[in-house]
């Protein structure tokens, strides 16, 4: 699922970055719009940043606790799996005419 995974630990600070490839930019856009509204709860000290490249969704986490990072990543992957299943179920997204 992830084409690139980077993690680092420094001074009680945890960071994880993944890139999730998609067949088209349209599907990347759908995934970004579907997953962006889910903000991290304020108490965990975890920050999640979503961005896109040409055909990949890029996600970066910064956390002060390994546990909060693990919970956030697990939850995100569950939501991502649901988005990908939905895209597969409805087929290739059609382009919208403006």
UniProtKB/TrEMBL annotation:
Pfam families attached here?
Answer: Pcc1
Where is it located?
Cytoplasm; Nucleus
User: What biological process terms from GO does the record include?
Assistant: tRNA processing; tRNA threonylcarbamoyladenosine metabolic process
Gene3D superfamilies documented for this protein: Alpha-D-phosphohexomutase, C-terminal domain
User: Which residues are in coiled coils?
Assistant: none
Q: Which GO terms describe its cellular component?
A: cytoplasm; EKC/KEOPS complex; nucleus
Q: What is its main location?
A: cytoplasm
Q: Does the keyword NAD apply?
A: no
Alphabetized UniProt keyword annotations: Cytoplasm, Nucleus, tRNA processing
* Protein task: Component of the EKC/KEOPS complex that is required for the formation of a threonylcarbamoyl group on adenosine at position 37 (t(6)A37) in tRNAs that read codons beginning with adenine. The complex is probably involved in the transfer of the threonylcarbamoyl moiety of threonylcarbamoyl-AMP (TC-AMP) to the N6 group of A37. LAGE3 functions as a dimerization module for the complex.
What do we know about how this protein assembles, alone or with others?
A: Component of the EKC/KEOPS complex composed of at least GON7, TP53RK, TPRKB, OSGEP and LAGE3; the whole complex dimerizes.
Family, according to the entry, reads as follows: Belongs to the CTAG/PCC1 family.
Q: What is this protein called?
A: L antigen family member 3
Source lineage: Eukaryota, Metazoa, Chordata, Craniata, Vertebrata
């Amino acid at each position: 699922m992830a084409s690139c995974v980077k993690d680092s630990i420094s001074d009680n600070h945890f960071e994880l970055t993944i890139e999730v490839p998609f067949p088209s930019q349209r599907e990347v856009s759908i995934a970004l719009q579907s997953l962006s509204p889910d903000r991290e709860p304020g108490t965990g000290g975890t920050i999640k940043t979503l961005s896109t490249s040409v055909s990949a969704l890029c996600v970066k986490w910064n956390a002060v606790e390994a546990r909060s990072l693990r919970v956030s990543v697990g939850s995100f992957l569950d939501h991502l799996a649901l988005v990908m299943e939905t895209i597969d179920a409805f087929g290739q997204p059609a382009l919208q005419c403006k």
